[in-house]
Amino acid sequence: MPELIAPTTDLHAAFLDCHREWGPGLHEDGFGVGPDDDVETPEGFATWVGRRLHLDHPVGTPCPPEWHASCRWIVEDGRVLGGIALRHHFDAARGYIGYGVRPSARRRGLASWALGEMLAEARAALGVDRVLLVCAPDNVASARTIERAGGVFDGIRVTELGPTRFYWATP
C-alpha cells in the first residue's frame, strides 16, 4: 500500500534509484531538484532534504512569508515511487501542485491518488477555493490525471516553461 511521507535522509538509496530511473536532467516533477542540487552524496542529499523540509509547517498554522512547499514522496515497501509538492504561494507558471511518478511505477493510479491527497491538503492548509494545476501540452497522462481529479481545462498559455495546459480544480 503506497503512502505519502515527508522527504527523509533514511531513503537516500531508494531516492537515488528513483532519480536515476528518470535518466539525466531535471524532470522529476514533485521533487524540487534544481540544477545546483547535490543529491548523490550523503552530505549534499541531507542539505537538499533539509531545504525541502525547512519551512514545512503543520496544517492550520500560518504560512511563513518565504516561498515554500509541502513536499511528499510516494513510497511503497521502502521504494520511492514518485514525488508531489503543494506550493503554498501561487505560481502562475507551475500551479499549486507538481507531481511525478517514476516510469516503472506508472499506470497504477499513483498520481491520481497522490493528487487527491494533496488537493485535500490544499483545502486544509491554504484555504483556497480553487487550485491551478498545469502540465505540458503533450503530457496526455498528466492531463487525464488532472481531469480525473476534477480539473477543468482553461486553455494553453505560454509561460516561462513554454506552452502549458492550464486547469482549475476545486480542492
How do the strands and helices of this protein lay out in sequence?
Elements: E1 3-5, H1 12-22, H2 42-53, E2 69-76, E3 79-87, E4 97-101, H3 110-126, E5 131-135, H4 140-148, E6 152-159, E7 162-169
Antiparallel strand pairs: 1-2, 2-3, 3-4, 5-7, 6-7
Q: In percent, how much strand structure appears in the residues?
A: 25-35%
Low-confidence stretches: none
Q: What count of helical segments does DSSP give?
A: 4
What's the β-strand tally?
A: 7
Which word captures the global form? globular
Strand order of the largest sheet: 1-2-3-4
Helix content: 25-40%
Structural class: alpha+beta
How can the largest sheet be summarized? Answer: 4 strands, antiparallel
Rg: 15 Å
Molecular structure report:
With 171 residues, the chain is of the alpha+beta class. The chain is built from 4 helices and 7 strands; from the N terminus they run βααβββαβαββ. It has a 4-stranded antiparallel beta sheet with strand order 1-2-3-4, with helices on both faces. Strands 5-7-6 form a 3-stranded antiparallel beta sheet, with helices on one face. Strand 6 and strand 7 form a beta hairpin. The longest helix has 17 residues, at 110-126. The two termini are 24 Å apart. The mean pLDDT is 89.
Structure characteristics:
171 residues, three-stranded antiparallel sheet, four-stranded antiparallel sheet, globular, 7 strands, single chain, 27% strand, alpha+beta
Compact description:
It is built from four helices and seven strands; from the N terminus they run E-H-H-E-E-E-H-E-H-E-E.
